[in-house]
Amino acid sequence: xxxxxxxxxxxxxxxxxxxxxxxxxxxxxxxxxxxxxxxxxxxxxxxxxxxxxxxxxxxxxxxxxxxxxxxxxxxxxxxxxxxxxxxxxxxxxxxxxxxxxxxxxxxxxxxxxxxxxxxxxxxxxxxxxxxxxxxxxxxxxxxxxxxxxxxxxxxxxxxxxxxxxxxxxxxxxxxxxxxxxxxxxxxxxxxxxxxxxxxxxxxxxxxxxxxxxxxxxxxxxxxxxxxxxxxxxxxxxxxxxxxxxxxxxxxxxxxxxxxxxxxxxxxxxxxxxxxxxxxxxxxxxxxxxxxxxxxxxxxxxxxxxxxxxxxxxxxxxxxxxxxxxxxxxxxxxxxxxxxxxxxxxxxxxxxxxxxxxxxxxxxxxxxxxxxxxxxxxxxxxxxxxxxxxxxxxxxxxxxxxxxxxxxxxxxxxxxxxxxxxxxxxxxxxxxxxxxxxxxxxxxxxxxxxxxxxxxxxxxxxxxxxxxxxxxxxxxxxxxx
Length: 480
Prior knowledge:
This protein is of the alpha/beta class. The chain has three domains: 30-127, Thrombin, subunit H (Beta Barrel), CATH 2.40.10; 131-269, no CATH class; 273-479, Rossmann fold. The protein contains 15 helices and 13 strands. The strands form two sheets. A seven-stranded mixed β-sheet has the order 9-8-7-10-11-13-12, with helices on both faces. The protein is elongated. The N and C termini lie far apart (78 Å).
C-alpha cells in the first residue's frame, strides 16, 4: 500500500449508520484530529469515537480528521465535527461526524483481508521454522516422489485413454505384476522412516505444527485413495468403519484415475491391511475349532463390534458344520449400517453353503457403552451364554480401564469351556506413522504383555496371546 490519501468523494448528506470495530482487531488503526494523535475506539460510515487524555477539543468545532494504518499510511481524511464530548476519570471521549465524505469501508475490508493473509503467511513460516530440518527434508522427499510418480502415471494413462477397454484393463494387470510393488515398497520405506517422529505427536502444540505441515504438503496425494479419504473424513464418526474394511477385503484398484487407483492399492495392501484380511482366516479357524470341540449340538457364537463380518464368508467357504449341529450367529454393533452389511454377508454365506436349516443369524444393535453401563437389554443379551465371543477391531479404540472392564463383562457371557478372543494392533505396526500423520487415524496399540494384562484380574481362566504372521495384530485368548 502506498503513502497516498484515498480519493475524495463528493460531499453527501450525512446518514448515520451502525458503528463497527471489527477492523481494529486485525490491525492497529489510529486517528489524527487537527494534527494530534488520538485513540480510535470505533468507526462507522459517517463518524467515529475517539479518546484522549487531553480536553482541548471543543464541541461543535470542525477539525481536519485522518484515519491511519499501523504503518502510518493515510487511509481516509475528511473534515469532522465534534458532536458530543464526555469526561470520565481524566479521560475524554468524544464523537465526531464526517461533514464532507463517508468512510471507504471497502478499502478497510480489503486491508483487513490482506492483513489476515499476512498474519497467516507469517504464522505458517514461523511454524515451518519450528519444525526440525530432517523432518522437513523427509516430507519434501516424499512429496518429490509423489510429484514424479503422478507426472509419469498421468502421462501413461493419457496414452491409454484412446485405447479399447481390454487395453486399459491390461494396464492395471501390468501395474499389478511390475509397478505396484515398486510404489508400495517406496511408500512403506517412507512410512518406516516416519515412525521415528511419532513421539513428536505426544505434545499437542508440536503435533499441530507437524501434522499441518505434513498434510499441507502431502495429503493432496494420499487422499486420492478412496480408502485414505474415508479414513480422514470419518463419515460414520470414526476411521476403520465397515466400508473401509470392505475396501481392504476387496483389495483392488479403486479411484477416479490411474494415480488414485495406484495409491488406493497401496493403502489397502500394506502390512496392516494384510493383517485385517488374514483376520478372516484366523477367526474362521478359531470358529471351526470351537464348533468341533463343543460338547453341545447347539452352538452360539457372538461378534462384538462386528463390522462387515466377512469372517463368516471365510468360514462357510472353508469349513462344514457337523450334520447334527445347530449354530446361532449373533452379530453385535452400534452402527446399524454395519449391522445391515454384516447380516447380508453372513446370511449370503449361509445360503451359499446350503446350511440355512442349521444356521440362524441374529443382529443386535447394542453399543459397547450399553454393555459397560450394564444396560438391561445388553445384559439380557449377554446372559444367554455363548460358546465363543470375539471382538477383532474394537479394542484398538478402548483405553486400558475400559478395555479391562469390558473384558471382564464379556467373560461372564461365556458358557463353561467358552472362549473369548480379542484382537489389538501391536505398537510395532509399520503403518502406524502414516495413519497418524496423514489421516488422523489414531489407535491404542498394545504389546503381547499389555494385551494379557487386560485379563489380569480374571480368576479361573486360561490366558495367552498370539501374534499374526505380519507381527501387527496380537490376539488375546481367554478360555473358560
